[in-house]
Amino acid sequence: MRHLLWITLASALLWAQKRKETSSAASTAMPSVxxxxxxxxxxxxxxxxxxxxxxxxxxxxxxSFGLRDTLAQAYxxxxxxxxxxxxxxxLLNEQPRNADLAELRAVSYFxxxxxxNALDAYEKLYGITQSPLHLYQVITLQFNLQRYxxxxxxxxxxxxxPESAQQTVRISTSDGQxxxxxxxAAALNVxxxxxxxxxxxxxxxxxxxxxxxxxxxxxxxxxxxxDVSREGAAExx
Length: 237
Known about the structure:
The chain has a domain of 120 residues: Serine Threonine Protein Phosphatase 5, Tetratricopeptide repeat (Alpha Horseshoe). 73% of the residues lie in helices and 4% in strands.
């Protein structure tokens, strides 16, 4: 079964660009030596030295929210996701509805392939943003954790949100291809997979067909429709 696999996080890509801009702005306030070290490290893409420069400033100036926020970003950019989570958690205790930090935490857990904590983090993030894209991340994680009842309920919720018709998500196939897919089509593909797992092949076929009406070039939905149609034909023999 082709299913949906892990998605490539479109929201993470947007987040990374936005946070990069924020990090650049934060560096201009650094004192002389630390600022020079941070700026020079940034020019060479040296995230580890950026982290050292930030710790230097925190040690000499105090642990302000802004400096720790920039440190969390630097850890993330260096691929030190557990450290990024640790700083983000500390800051979220102070600002529980900070969407940027909540997203950093969620994406970090996702990149660590810690599905249970990623799901918890995305549920909290969705509670802050009410973004259909974040709800879709919740759906895919619930699917991978086999929490099918909650997954189905959230698919219904997502499809009822008008804004979901205007958004897209980047998803990957088993052979490494990626596509930018309308969010509603992606959700319908997940619904079809769930129905197929429940042996509801006729309803599953309808879900895949509806996804393809929205996005005719949807590779995963095409493959899933072919699979379920082949199974139906074999059952009739």
